[in-house]
Design brief:
Structural class: alpha+beta
Largest sheet: 8 strands, antiparallel, barrel
Radius of gyration: 30 Å
Mean pLDDT: 81
Helix content: 10-25%
Number of helices: 3
Shape: elongated
Strand order of the largest sheet: 1-2-3-4-5-6-7-8
Number of strands: 8
CATH class of the largest domain: Mainly Beta
Low-confidence stretches: 15-33
Distance between the termini: 77 Å
Number of domains: 2
Strand content: over 45%
Length: 238
């Protein structure tokens, strides 16, 4: 009987002693701190496991210049024309929330299957002596320069194959500029969204989708073209 009573007293004493320590550890983990501090606290609980905790931004973007190059595929627009863009971008990050940029894009064009078919029909009619054939009038893009403003509205981090933690921002953009066409220059406007990956303190990557519009000139007069542009690029953060 005495032995059972002593065992009960020792168990009660152990529980009473451990409770404040457990509460202290719980309160420490609930308190937000720096990444290094949080890892140190977590390692106190389990030293045999590799622990990574992500809270604050790891890449500073206050008054930093980002230079990049992008490949872009263009959809919609002129049904006779397929266009791809190679662009060079410069973005000044005023803060992690906003940046101002300039984008120069060089256009590479080729006829679509429908465009080739129309030219083949016109060529065959000409060769057969038919004089009422019509060649499609195409006002193809040559280049563009656009000024943009970016708003980085959502932020987070991902574990990249257990190699490193990569910071990313989901952003929206709007801009205006000039499109150089085979017929001359014309205003152009764009708006869209994207995701920027800050792979390290100096290496960046972007995936972007945006709407772009401008007017071209064909023999029937001016017309509005509405494009969908998807970009993928790499850059450096200075």
């Amino acid at each position: 009987m005495k032995t059972t009573l002593l065992k009960g007293l020792f168990a009660l004493l152990a529980i009473t002693t451990a409770a404040p320590a457990f509460a202290s550890v719980s309160n420490d983990l609930e308190t937000l701190g720096t990444n290094a501090e949080s890892v140190r606290r977590a390692n106190k609980l389990e030293s045999r496991s590799k622990i990574a905790i992500v809270q604050n931004r790891s890449v500073d973007r206050h008054w930093r210049l980002e230079l990049g190059t992008n490949y872009g595929a263009v959809a919609a627009g002129d049904s006779y024309l397929s266009t791809q863009n190679l662009s060079f971008d410069a973005d000044l990050h005023v803060s992690p929330k906003f940046s101002l940029g300039v984008r120069y894009a060089k256009a590479f064009n080729e006829l679509t299957a429908e465009g080739k078919s129309q030219f083949d029909i016109a060529r065959n009619m000409k060769n057969n002596g038919q004089l009422d054939y019509r060649i499609p009038d195409i006002d193809y893009p040559e280049s563009s320069v656009i000024g943009v403003i970016n708003w980085y509205m959502l932020y987070g981090k991902i574990n990249f194959f257990d190699v490193s933690v990569v910071q990313f921002d989901i952003y929206s953009l709007a801009g205006a500029g000039t499109m150089q066409l085979s017929s001359g220059s014309t205003p152009t406007y764009t708006a869209g969204a994207g995701i920027g990956f800050w792979i390290s303190n100096h290496v960046t990557s972007r995936i972007e989708a945006r709407y772009q519009t401008y007017q071209d000139q064909v023999y029937t007069g001016s017309r509005n073209l509405n494009l969908f542009v998807a970009n993928l690029g790499l850059g450096v953060l200075l």
